[in-house]
Amino acid sequence: MKPLYARSLDGKPPEDWQSLEEHLENAASLAGDFASNFGAGPWGKLAGLWHDLGKCRANFQARLRGESIQAQHSDLGASLALERDKRLGILLAFAIAGHHAGLANLQGSGQGLPTPLLDRLSSSPADFEVLSGLPVSITERSIPEIPAHLDRMTQGTPDSKRALEVFIRFLFSALVDADRLDSERFSDPSRSWLRTEGESIPDIGKRLDSHLASRFSGAPDSEMGKMRNRILSACREAAALAPGAFSLTVPTGGGKTLSSMAFALRHAEIHGMRRVLTVIPYTSIIEQNAKVYREALGEENVLEHHSGMDYSRSDKEDGRAGVCRHELAEENWDIPVVVTTSVQFFESLFSHRPGRCRKLHNISRSVIVLDEIQTLPTEFLLPILDMLKELIRHYGCTVVLSTATPPALAARERFIEGLHNLREIIPDPAGLCLALSRVEYRWPKVDAPAMPWEELAREAVKHPRVLVITHRRSDARDLARMLEMRAPGEPLFHLSALMCPAHRLETLAAIKKILTGSGPCRVVSTQLVEAGVDLDFPVVFRALGGLDSMVQAAGRCNREGKREKGRVLIFRAESRPPPGTPRKALEITELLLREGGGQVDVSDPLIFQKYFRRLYAAGETDAKGIQTDRQQLKFANVGRAFSLIEDGHTKTIIVPWGEAPLLLEKLREKGPDRKLFRSLGNFSVSIYPQAFARLTEAGALDEVHEGIFTLTPPFLHLYHPNLPLDHNPDHPGFGLREDGDFIGDPGAYLA
User: How far is CA 257 from CA 250, 289, 365, 412, in A?
Assistant: First the structure.
């Protein structure tokens, strides 16, 4: 009988190829180890043993030898699992059949989705006789005992079906990672060699303790410093509590970035957990927090994973060989500390694609810190909470809800879907909030009309250092122009999502540099500045909106407590927030204002319970019907529906900022590759289809590569240093002063 192979090597004779038996055994060992972290080692091992059984077929072996033929191989192991046990075998069948194509629906398909699992297996030959070429120790196996928590699957209740769905996801993840790691070891051993485990959780905890000791040793004995020490001590003490759900309610400026990590590392050490995941809603906060964590924990132990991070670029600039390991760790999160976005974290948990799901098994036995938890999108709230509860109950995770404005996510009589036994880390969050109160709020009168933009500009320009936050990008842009005309030559900055990430970072750095001195600095921004961005102004104007946004805006006012009180001046804007949750949030805040006689006591945490309960009641908490699709094991449907960023509703263009023109030229000359796309992401801006259409009709866009657009030379003025992308091509001189210079160039303050 001819030997069976799993993969060939270019230019090498068959005796140097990897045997099929070796690959199956290697994948089984890895997948079994991975799955053991969530109590399913035998299931992972069997998935590894059977995932490539179809490679026994003659057509696949012929393909390895160079014949140009089709050779399906991931269906045979799935069919064998169903043949051995029609009830339990489906768990293995999903993982095995999808380890290349992705998790399919059990039944029912849609355009652009994989063939449903049962349809695919019924149309594939169950030619089990080809398995005779493998040892019986691989093929003659029984389906393992089902994990104890899935015994209730036979009850057929909705929650048991969703628990089953999560188990399939994690089993699938263990198999995908095992298969790819063994393939890499054989085909690219130099790449595989770069994967290292990093330091242990206890050693990283010692690094943090040392960092915190040196950080506080020379700090002045201020009230703010005492409060931050109190918060840190509470986090360290609470770490000994049993794993589960925790709430960390700390006012902005209270030092929760490092205090939450102190809790997480100590909790992980005490309870034998493997890693810490910090999940943050916005890249602007991630870049800031990840830098803090790298300084405290060691760069080799921290992965910063989001669309704007380009490790290959960092490697080139810094000449550090170790950075390449981080690029590999993005694939499966096999690193002690991961700092990532809400989009990356939650979309991976609900995805059906192998690349995204590959990391899931490494989420088990982790401490998950969800920063700025109040930003969770209401329309996905039920699926998210259900997944978090499953991670806590059956995958050894602890979840920490970290925020200054705690949402009402605890289970209660009218919200049974919430988190159970949610414990507060800070003993007296209300008292802490009062102690850290550094601002006074001026609320608009209940029946006061909207403040015209010209009037707001006149009021704001009276303050040499002021931050103004609006609802909409266009409002912020127009208001910035008004302020510039009233105070020409004085530092003025505009921040919005119409700036590319690289531009935002440079602008924030320029603002912070000015704020360390004594000169004037005015900033007009959309709400992207509110969550976690470390700025400190004596005066903040904020358009009336959701109550949580008002408090987050106040976190940019007197942040370090250097003044007795900062001033947060809330005004009714001429425009309303966008439809959906932002507009409902404004309406609920208006109602609270009326109930409070024109005041809202934001120092009382119970006010946020009232606010968020009303907000959740006013909206759909499973707008896409994801829970139903999960119960029906429609993985592909769920993966398509669970999108925190509606990609179909925006278009992306590359703007002429920094090295973007050089990268675009490289794209034109050499074509696309993954690293180049990642680098270009630092210079991208998303706009709505109507704006895209206006620019296209005006001839303002050039398609450099399929789906990649940039501004044409006659329209480069539409993007410039202070008032970023203007998607109205009828404004040829937008943002230019009469002397032709740009206003507020950040480079002038970074020199």
Answer: 10, 7, 21, 29
pLDDT digits (tens, 9 = 90+) for 297-320: 999 999 998 766 656 544 444 444
β-pair type (366-371, 398-403)? parallel
* 496 and 355 share one domain: no
Whole-number pLDDT of residue 501: 85
Coil, strand or helix: which one is 466? strand
| Beta-strand pair 18-19/5-7 | antiparallel
Q: Which of 574, 602, 630 is where one domain is finished?
A: 602
Same domain, 343 and 245: yes
Strand ranges for 330-438 from DSSP E: 337-341, 366-371, 398-403, 423-424
Dump pLDDT digits (tens) for 491-529.
999 888 888 888 888 888 899 999 998 889 999 999 888
* DSSP codes of every residue in 13-30: -GGGSEEHHHHHHHHHHH
Q: What angle do CA 160, 162, 164 make, to 5 degrees?
A: 70
Of the chain, the end-to-end C-alpha distance in Å amounts to 73
Domain count for the chain, please give it: 4
Confidence band for 685, pLDDT divided at 50, 70 and 90 = confident
Please write the tens of the pLDDT for every residue from 353-386: 999 999 999 999 999 999 989 888 899 999 999 9
| Interatomic CA distance for residues 377 and 390, integer angstroms | 19
211 assigned to some structural domain = no
CATH number, domain of 11, equals: 1.10.3210
CATH number, domain containing residue 398:
3.40.50.300
Secondary structure (3-state) at 603: coil
Residue 748 has a pLDDT of 32
**CA nearest neighbour of 727 among 743, 713, 711, 741:** 711
Contact between 411 and 230 under an 8 Å Cβ cutoff? The reply is no
Residues in a beta bridge with 370: 279, 401
Residue 219 maps to a domain: no
Reported confidence tier of residue 227, pLDDT bands at 50, 70, 90: confident
Alpha-helical runs (H) found in 115-222:
117-122, 136-139, 158-187, 189-193, 201-217
- Does residue 449 share a domain with residue 427? no
Name the DSSP letter for residue 229. H
Tokens representing residue 52 in the block: 């490539």
Q: For the chain, what is the mean pLDDT?
A: 87
Separation CA 669–CA 137 (nearest Å): 53
Domain identity same for 428 and 443:
no
Q: Which residues, including other chains, have CB under 8 Å from residue 513's CB and lie 6 or more apart?
A: 749, 750
pLDDT score at 745: 34
Q: Using an 8 Å Cβ cutoff, are 437 and 568 in contact?
A: no
Q: Give exposure, 416-434, as e/b (b: 16+ Cβ within 10 Å).
A: ebbbeebebbbeebeebbe
Q: Which residues is 651 bridged to in the sheet?
A: 687
Assess if residue 373 is contained within a domain: yes
Which two structure tokens, joined as six digits, stand for 72?
A: 């399906």
Tokens of 444: 């608009």
Instruction: Return the pLDDT at 155.
Output: 65
Tell me the three state secondary structure of residue 492. Answer: strand
Q: Which of 706, 690, 707, 688 is nearest to 698 (CA)?
A: 690
Q: Region 418-441: what's the mean pLDDT? A: 86
pLDDT of residue 153: 56
Query: Distance (Å, rounded) from C-alpha 230 to C-alpha 122?
Result: 63
Q: Domain range holding 718? A: 647-750
* 403 and 342 together in one domain: yes
Please report, as a single letter, which amino acid is at residue 422. L
Tally of CA atoms within 13 A in the half-sphere of 538 that contains its CB: 14
Secondary structure tally for the chain: helices H, strands E: 31, 19
Asked whether residue 60 is domain-assigned, the answer is: yes
Return contacts of 715-721, CB within 8 angstroms, 24+ apart. 716/656, 719/655, 719/656, 719/657, 719/685, 721/503, 721/745, 721/746, 721/747
Whether 120 and 75 have beta carbons less than 8 Å apart is answered as yes
Question: Does pLDDT of 60 surpass 80?
Answer: yes
96 shares a domain with 148: yes
